[in-house]
Amino acid sequence: MSDRPIILWFRRDLRLADNPMLHEAARTGRPLIPVAILDPVAESWGAAARWRWGEGLSVFAKSLAQKGARLILRRGEARDILSQLVAETGAEAVWWSRTYDPDGRARDVAAKARLRANGTGARSFPGHLLFEPDAVTTGQGTGYKVFSAYWRAASRLDPGRPLPAPGVLVPPSGWPDSDDLSSWRLADALRAGEAVLRRNSAPGEPEALERLSDFLRSRAAAYAERRDFPAEDATSGLSEYLTYGEISPRTIWSETGKAGGNAKFLSEVGWREFAYHLLHHSPDMARDNWNRDWDRFPWRADNADAEAWRRGMTGEPFVDAALREMYVTGRMHNRARMVAASYLTKHLLTDWRVGLAWFADCLTDWDPAANALGWQWVAGSGPDAAPYFRVFNPVTQGEKFDPEGAYRHRWIAEGRKQPQEDALAFFEAAPKSWKIAPDARYPSRRIDPAEGRKRALDAYERWKALK
Ligand code: FAD
């Protein structure tokens, strides 16, 4: 058997357990060289996503070290770096787990072509999803456009059982040079202070597994009933771990299935699958209206109202709480995401791509498929979307899903004698140039909710007449 090493290129699969690529690689008994590359695709991610990926890499490097391996870090165009590493190490092949967003796919295709042209093996593995995006097809062999039908079909498939973490990994005869993670300066682009974000982040596979079991033990039973209340800790909080592959969806599926009675929770994991299914069939949906009729909708381009929205200064407390939560923690509750997105695209009549870009910059769980689907779902331009004329009222949404005002109190400092710690953290994190202070007056509304709703519906009627 050849003892030439295999290079394992890690991207969004920063875990030891249920990692099909790593499992298969360990089984070969060959020397393995794990590598992560800060390439133009990763450089193009938003500030919070890049930072969070770096935090994940740091934890994963420690997990690999316990198995006798190192995580080699390099920066540059992936196909060039991989070819260089092959030349330096005499590796026979490069393996990786697939990603499915258009930028990632284009990069991977180019890397595969270059490696193979040089006589190096290149092999990709599943693992980011329960089901490969093209594994679920309609009777006509096409993709699904409606979630309920998609999920009915997908749920009939068997994703298989999670794979165990490997034992000791065989090292190469010598390790290639590695960058120092700190030299990548992944925190530099963060507008929010790194210290604030770090206080709210606990990256890595061990934490992800602990979160899952804690959720199944103590919160899953009430999930369907409580998941819409942003002041409560009622959801799993697993999205950022799924984003960086610190836990596999198959592990979630299998552990949740064993616990039983969690169909609603599993169907939310199904929305993530559906998002990738759609992105696979419509790769442009991260940038363009999925339904191109919406190209003629009179959305406003970026504007002063949108800037107030980004800064959590719209004067609409539920919306501002949502934006501030994201700024401080890198996360936003799902109900709050829907209300904040509806407010931007409807009350403020602003193009969903303006909001998509801000979420992409601020979310530590930023996911190219789920973010695009979420925005197009709310805006009405996506498949199986909420109709545009269903405008969330930010006031009644607050009354219904934050009845005691606990979420708003947690995040809004202005006008309070004793603001909560999180509300103050927002001001600690915000750039000085925003010139905001917790003891200033809370901003007045950008637009009256009824007037905003009317303006949105008028625009919708004008657009319908154009169609
Ligand atoms: P739970 O309720 O515990 O759900 C479990 C898992 O299911 C989540 O971790 C997530 O992976 C998946 N999931 C749940 N809801 C959805 C959904 N609606 N669409 C796709 N997957 C879902 N999710 C992201 O992971 N990244 C994003 O960038 C993202 N952007 C969004 C933008 C908008 C405008 C909207 C409306 C939703 C967005 N979502 C995104 C979906 C959802 O808000 C988050 O996945 C969820 O809030 C994460 O919290 P949780 O892990 O506690 O979820």
TrEMBL record:
Keywords: Chromophore, FAD, Flavoprotein. Its cofactor is FAD; (6R)-5,10-methylene-5,6,7,8-tetrahydrofolate. PANTHER family: CRYPTOCHROME, CRYPTOCHROME CIRCADIAN CLOCK 5 ISOFORM X1. This is DNA photolyase family protein. Belongs to the DNA photolyase family. Pfam families: DNA_photolyase, FAD_binding_7. Residues 4-130 form the Photolyase/cryptochrome alpha/beta domain. It comes from the Bacteria. It comes from Albidovulum marisflavi. The lineage of its organism: Bacteria, Pseudomonadati, Pseudomonadota, Alphaproteobacteria, Rhodobacterales.
